[in-house]
Amino acid sequence: MITGTGITKTYKQRGNLLGGRDVQALRGVDFAIEKGGAVTFIGESGCGKTTLGRIVAGLETYDSGEIVIDGTPMSGLRHRQRQAYFRRVQLIHQDPYSALNPTRTIHQTLHAPLALRARQMGRSKAWAEERARELLTLVGIDPGYVLPRYPHQLSGGMRQRVVIARALTVDPEVLVADESVSMIDVSLRLGILALLKDLRERLNVSVLFITHDIATARYIGDDGELYVIYRGQVVERGPTEAVISGPVHPYTQALLSAIPVLRGVERPGAERVVPTEALDERHADTGCLFARRCPFRTERCESERPSLDGTGHGHACFHPRPRAVIPVEASA
Amino acid sequence: GVGRSADSGVYTTIDGAKQIDATAPINPFNPQGNTFLGYDAMTLAWPKNDPVDPNRFYPGIAASWTVTPDQGEVVIHLQPKARWSDGKPVTSEDVRTSIGLAYTQGGTAYAVDPKAAGSAADVRVVDERTVKVTQGASKSNLFLRNVLSTVVVPAHVFGGLLPADFWTTLKAARGTGPAVEQAKARITGLAEKVISFAPAKDVSAGPFTLERVNPGEALLVRNKYFYANHNIAPDRVKVLNYTGNQQIWNYLISGSLDSAPFTAVPTGVLKRIRETEGNEVVKGFSPVAVSMAFGQTRKPYDNVHVRRALAYLIDRGQVTKVASPEAGTPAKTTTGIHAKSAQAWLGDGIGELDQYQVDPAKAAKELEAAGMTRKGGKWAMPDGTPWKVEIHVPASFSDWVAAAKAITSQLNDHGIDATVLTAADYTLYLDELAAGKYDVGFWLMALGPSPYNIYQRIYGSANGWQLLAGQLTHVPPGTQGNWMGGPETIDGVNPGVLTSRLNAAGPDEQRRIVGTLARLTNQQLPVIQLYDYVNTQFVSTSRYTGWPPADSDVLRLPAGVWMQLGMIKEKAGS
Amino acid sequence: MSVTQLLPAPATPRRNFWRGVLRVMRRKPSRMAGVAIVALFAFMGVFGPLLYPSPLPRDDNALYAAPSWAHPFGTDFEGTDVLALVVTGTRYVLLAGLATAVITVALGTGIGLLAGFHRGRWDTVLMRLTDLQLTIPGLPLLLVLSTVWKFTSPLEMGVVLGVLGWGGIARAVRSQTLSLRERGFIEAARGLGLSTRHIVGRELLPSMAPYIAMNMLIAVTGAIYAQVGLFFLGVLPFDANNWGVMLNLAVFGGGALTSAAALPYLLAPLLAILLLTLGIVLVVDAMDEIFNPRLREE
Amino acid sequence: MNTVIRRLTGHLARGLAMIWVVTTISFVIIRNIPGDPVRGQYEKLIEQGMGPDQAERATAALYGFLPTGSLWDQYTGYLNGLIHGDLGQSLSTPGTGVATLIGSAAKWTVLPVLGGTLLSFLLGVTLGVYAAIKRSGKLGDALAISGSLLHGVPQYVIGLLVTAIFTTLWPILPAGGPVDIAFEPGFNAGYLVSLVQHATLPVLTYALASYGGWILAMKSSVATVLGDDFILAAELRGLKRGVLFRYIARNAILPLFTILALSLGMLFGGAIFIETIFNYPGLGLLLVNSIGARDYALMGGTFLVITVAIVVANIAADLLYAVIDPRVRTGGAA
Amino acid sequence: MTESFAPGVRVQDLTVVYRTPMGELPALAGVGLTLAPGTITGIVGESGSGKSTLALSLLNAVQPPGRISGGSVEIDGLGDVVRLTGDDLRRARGRQVGYVFQAAQNSLNPLKTVGKQLLDLGRSHDVADLPALLREARALLGRMGLDGGRVLDSYQHELSGGMRQRVGIMLALVLNAHLVVLDEPTTALDMITQATILRIVREVHRERGLTTLIVTHDIGVAAEVTDSLAVMYGGRVVEHGPTMEVLGSPRHPYTRGLIRAIPRLSGDIGEATALPGRPPTLGTIPAEGCVFRERCPLRMAVCDTEDPAPAAHGGRTVACHAVGRPVNFAVRKEYV
Ligand SMILES: Nc1ncnc2c1ncn2[C@@H]1O[C@H](COP(=O)(O)OP(=O)(O)OP(=O)(O)O)[C@@H](O)[C@H]1O
Ligand SMILES: Nc1ncnc2c1ncn2[C@@H]1O[C@H](COP(=O)(O)OP(=O)(O)OP(=O)(O)O)[C@@H](O)[C@H]1O
Ligand SMILES: [Mg+2]
Ligand SMILES: [Mg+2]
């Protein structure tokens, strides 16, 4: 169980003297990842999803807030101890092409962490070998084929599976999957999504899924939680299915409206929310962060910032209203 | 023809004494100064190149002179028609000012310290064109030479450098009492000002004046007021800069030089030079020899047998052939004197000396006498450790490097392990040599014609004898530049004392001393004389004629002096 | 999973690699020539001095002899065969070159890795140092240094040249490290808790190895040239023969630039340098292609 | 512009620090050089036929003003002088300021260095474009290999070969010196022709020695740009070949300008071999000569000037980049 | 605005090969495709199926080491583009055929402002009235919701991804081209921007009367904007027909599999499944037989030896041996 409260992060712009604006990537984000649960973050480009994922994986520092892993607050710990905790969170990179060392075979890639693991747990070398095969089988590829090969000899889907297998070598509790399927061919995407779902069930790992394609969130687990993040703030949160079928925040609705409709299979929803203008980091951050782009904004929105309310399906909006923005099946 | 100065009336040459530095002032007291001896810089007289007599001269600014037998008093009569290039006459006052300026620089004849041998005690203007210079108590037989070598500069240009009270200060500095040091300091304190003085333009009493200079060349034009203007053929003189011999070779091959100073030259290059139309080689006497010298405090060179053995193994003819076939003659033997002077100094005495012909058997015997042993074809030190002869030379002297390499090759042939080690430059070489870091190094010697100068190179400061303010002292090896480290006396003879006596001795005594020192040097071999330099010069007959013949006594003088003496004539038809 | 699926370990990729090498070589015969040239020089460096009697024979009657069958490049000022001088001089030259390369590469790689990997304050300090090294004019400093310090052995020479020449590599390795660091696999290794030693030694270095190897070759040539140049200028004391000494003696002693007689004496070491450069250029050209990722796509 | 000024101040501060460090290092090294200018001068006088005593006194007078005091005093004195623009007095050319000597040498270095570099830059860049475009052809290959070869061969090899060819085998050009003295300096034909004649071989050597580098740099730069999407995009928009060529050239040459600035700085120090071989009186030769004469002040000064040239070139290169590349100029992410 | 003339395009038997270490391999093998005048046609397919190659072929712009080795591309008013060379070809590009590049993010010269590049374009095509061109460009940009003046004064790095893409479209249309090829116009843009761009494409298409070809690997994108849809696999067009029909009742087993593999917002999650196997690359495309057979649930013996020829089925062209057989089709249909 990992919880985060009030996580903020500001990137200081260095080197670039003229554009010397700081970027507030996260503005007080709360989240909780249950053991074996699934949490999805969606949002537009640049709204802080990756930053959050990296913070959770311990690869990035944060300015304030607290992350608690299994009841232990991280802020009190020394660097080394913290690292040990964060080892339980493994990041799966977006790009399976750069996530594997091109000069090492899959065997070598998997062996390094497993050998370490074997030493830590007092197991034999043979165990490490066996475990490598086990993990590859678990992620659905043939160890015999894959082990002696170099990454460039594998397809994107296979590589992504290898990356997942590598993350599993340390028996993590959480997998952070940042856009893990966006670079994989359409025909193979579902396979990876299904694998992640499968791992949740079989190994009881939780998955923190980061994407800008909401549809994929459904395939990680319909029992999961969905967080819609905008300019570093969570604007809507709730059970995945509930948010998708009944979005109340105009931003969520805009995101859902933008998803192309598979005409012939689906019909567009009755309503559609289109932002009044494009995202611009330079927009003022007084009031509601979305106000400038919101077709439903009122004066209040421009002066006051709504906060995320309640538990369960919550939102940060002064004018929440469900709208039928998502497409419906053509046959229905 | 690039570089070929085809335009008539231009005489192209090189000043062997210095590299041209365009930023330096037109000032003969500055070592880099842009004045050229014989062309625009004049001395009172020009020394002849006599193998034994240093006191023979051609007239310069001085038309004539008289000297007392003990050289106590020199009276100089200036050229009656001498004028500066701005038309002003050259007067006795100019000479006196020049001597005053020389005092600030510390010439031998013009040492502030009265005890210094051969320094002038008094300078008196007799009349407009007559000056009298008297020598102090500590006499030197080189006094005349030194006085006549005085460079004369115009008082109306340089005079301001001397403060009004200069002569009284000088007198005070040469006297006794507490004020002496202060006065001395004031005189020497002028040195820097004199050296850096930069006249706006050249005012010369010589046949030419400097027109302009750039980093590569200097251009001099005729001085129409020169007293012997009818003797001067060229209208202009171009002095080329050089940084290495090979540049001179290049100029010669392209035929652009009318005359070139002494240069060592490899045979192949000489052939090319000769192929150029008009080029001729003139050879004459040069009172310099090169030797291989030993650090006698270092083993095994402290042992005279070892030095003799090496002398028996070195084929000087071969060394010369490799190193300097054109500008050297193999040393007949080691006397410390150039072979040509030796004939005059020693006469038949030479025959009694060991010639050190190549003789491996004798060498082996000498080595054995020194306790050296032969193991597997290689000679080893008496204690059995390997012996390696390391010969040091400065990298910039190509003939020395070649000679040293030839010697090591020969020694290697005879079972002595030998290598050449070079020093990056001459300065560094001298420094390390003086610090006693070398076993064996090359050394210039036999600097005639004065016998004192000859032996000073062997039994002078390099060997521990320091002559300061007329006082001779001996310092132990390894200190104050005593790198040769020879014994202070050998068989009751103190060579240093004898050498310093040469300074003041009369002709007979000089001959006796030289004989003793030559024998001693031949037997003890503090150095092994390798080859004697030949003054090899190049002239081109394509534009000018009237060159000095081989062995002429003007050969060491600049071509400007040849012109003054009326030798150089424009070639008919050119 | 059945046991039969145990595949022989990574034999295939390795064999592919060598096959790739061969193919690259064969594509341009000039590359073969390059390898042959480099091999020739290596051979001369190792066995050259053994091929001739020591000391080298001289012929007093053939000073600066013209090229002939007996002396393909003529003889020098004391009648020694010039070719023999070039061959026996190779060892010294190569040794100093190698020493320099090792030091340059070790220092450059070490500092570059350290700076790139640790970033932050380390990076700032090390990069300032690198800037400094790159700012100091190397050749002038060498000239000045050569008067203070006598590089009596090729190794000493190598140390100094190395200390004066690591900056370029350090900077390049740092930027490589920085870019590799951003690659997922380095981050993943850190996330897995692998040791820094593992990450640097097993993940980073192998990726940069070809790059470093090429730099090393280039450093070797650079060092050889600097060293030969110093000998040529005559600022280094010399005791053994080597190419730079030959150049110096030919130009300043033999008048090679003046008379054709000594020209072969000058040209022989010049040709040796040209040939060695050519060899190395061709080999680097081949390496460039061998290690190019394009080749891995098969 | 703001960016440029801010960059400039930062660079200046760092550049000054760098110069200070280099100055200090060179000061320490130079003061530890063995070899004594006094003894060198003494032996020189002896060789010129001066008597030993006379030579001794003459040198004493000459070097009466050698730097004295502890190393630290000399150092602070030196730095103090530097701050006031005083590089000290030359020992080998007594009475002349180091600054004067360097100034007159620098102008001779600038001429061939600039000429040679620009010539090779133009040549190399043109051929580099060609080599990149004809990458797979025989000629392109030959160009690339010859480029690498010339780039790899040290300057002095080229210098020596050039000299051997043009002054020995086929003597058509003067072998040394900066200009024939026979001509009045100034804007007259004879002087200028002579100037050019004398500079030809050094310029040629610089050009040959560095053009290979330009070929390589330009080739790889063009290859990179050719691989860039916008070139294909421009082609697909039907832009004329000339326009397309300018797109490629401008983008490819941009990174080379900074290298150009840097190499100009480096060349001040790299001129040593060429100036020695051609006896060209520039900074390199000055440095070599000052070392031979143990002229500490001149050595330090020359070294300093060479360093400053490099630092200035570095700054210039960066600013140049900032000025000509809009991505840097307007402060966007590149 | 001039009266619209939307050209038709007929691609016949187009073969494009790339030179690789293993010899010349075909990235397009005998592709036939017709773009009806005034329609938006989409090409979808996985990575490496030859979409970009086909798009480039429309401009005879296949880049080395590739070359068109056979077939023809007839464009109304231009003739066979494959035969065009030199200046004729150059003028056709830009003036008659507009191309929006796959990586439009980097399709602008970083050293020149958009305006300057626009002028270069005008000069290259001998536009006499450059001010008018600028006005037209500003109008187009304004149409796409941008401040034309500001954009023309901007460098590439000063524009966001969506803005760059719109500039790319502007440059493709500003010379009044009536055939526009867009290669992956929305890849690397986020959802909301993508939706905007797609809307613009659709509107501009209608307003200017264009024939448009959109290449994408995202079927959703194609579904949003296209009238007809071609599905590519391994260098072949395996199915082509009206978009609604192709998506609503796919005939080719690959099309079917592809649609089923798309994660969707509505519908039963359990229905979606990934295609087994992996898409072929140039080196792994089978030399003979059906290219899809390795992953095909309907594989038959004939598939191993014979490459199915495209055949018309109603308004559609399908290249599959199994599609001719109603039995199989009926059996499978129950699962769709
Ligand atoms: N290392 C960094 N330095 C400076 N700014 C950064 C850094 N990393 C991210 N940012 C900025 O922080 C903000 C959030 O970035 P982040 O990568 O977390 O967004 P994201 O939601 O993952 O976007 P995308 O969907 O494009 O991946 C962006 O404005 C980005 O420019
Ligand atoms: N320059 C090239 N050299 C060799 N093969 C190439 C080259 N360009 C493309 N190919 C190959 O040609 C085939 C078709 O490539 P193409 O770029 O047309 O595919 P695509 O459908 O556009 O894929 P993507 O969706 O990745 O853009 C691929 O298998 C690809 O590997
Ligand atoms: Mg992200
Ligand atoms: Mg594509």
Commentary on this structure:
The complex is a heteropentamer of chains A (332), B (574), C (298), D (334) and E (336). Chain A is of the alpha/beta class and 332 residues long. Chain A has two domains: 2-88 and 172-329, P-loop containing nucleotide triphosphate hydrolases (Rossmann fold); 105-167, no CATH class. Chain A has eleven helices and 13 strands. In chain A, the strands form three sheets. In chain A, strands 6-7-8-3-9-10-12 form a seven-stranded mixed beta sheet, with helices on both faces. Chain A has a four-stranded antiparallel beta sheet with strand order 2-1-4-5, covered by helices on one side. In chain A, helix 7 links the parallel strand 7 and strand 8. In chain A, helix 3 crosses helix 4 and helix 4 packs across helix 6. The radius of gyration of chain A is 21 Å and the shape is globular. The two termini of chain A are 40 Å apart. Mean pLDDT of chain A is 87; it is low at 15-19. Chain B is of the alpha+beta class. Helix content of chain B is 30%, strand content 23%. Chain B is built from 19 helices and 25 strands. In chain B, the strands form eight sheets. In chain B, strands 13, 14, 15, 18, 19, 20 and 23 form a seven-stranded mixed beta sheet that branches. A four-stranded mixed beta sheet of chain B has the order 1-12-11-10, with no helix packed on it. In chain B, helix 10 (316-323) runs antiparallel to helix 14 (398-413) and helix 16 (451-459) runs antiparallel to helix 17 (495-501). The longest helix of chain B has 18 residues, at 507-524. The relative contact order of chain B is 0.15. Residues 1-6 of chain B have low confidence and may be disordered. Chain C has 298 residues and is mainly alpha-helical. Chain C has helices spanning 11-27, 29-51, 82-118, 120-135, 138-148, 154-163, 167-182, 184-191, 196-233, 243-253, 263-290. Chain C is globular and about 75 Å long. Chain C starts with 10 loop residues before the first helix and ends in an 8-residue tail after the last helix. Residues 1-13 and 294-298 of chain C have low confidence and may be disordered. Chain E has 336 residues and is α/β, with parallel strands linked by helices. Chain E folds into two domains: 9-233, Rossmann fold (3-Layer(aba) Sandwich); 239-335, no CATH class. Chain E is built from eleven helices and twelve strands. In chain E, strands 6-7-8-3-9-10-12-11 form an eight-stranded mixed beta sheet, sandwiched between helices. In chain E, strand 4 and strand 5 form a beta hairpin. Chain E is globular. Chains in contact: A-C, A-D, A-E, B-C, B-D, C-D, D-E. One magnesium ion (MG) is lined by residues 51-52, 102 of chain E.
Report the CATH C-level class of the largest domain in chain D: Mainly Alpha
Helix content of chain D: over 70%
Give the CATH superfamily of chain C. MetI-like
Strand content of chain D: under 5%
CATH fold call of the largest domain in chain D: MetI-like fold
